[in-house]
Known about the structure:
- This protein is of the alpha+beta class.
- Helices cover 38% and strands 22% of the residues.
- It is elongated, with a radius of gyration of 26 Å.
Amino acid sequence: MKRGVSLKNLTYEKVEQATGQSVRQKIKLQQGIPSEKAKEIVRLVKDSKKKAQAKHPRRYSQSIQQRPG
């Protein structure tokens, strides 16, 4: 907290026995997001784009539709 690091960025490992009556726990600083979470975010973004496209299909202007082709 003192260094401005969010607690959500820390990964706690198992508590281990140390010498005497003390215990030890390693904490890793996580950089970026896990790949599973990234895949889920990408899937949600793609789904929302598909829904938006289904709601508002592309409309061509009348001048394009009336051109001889």
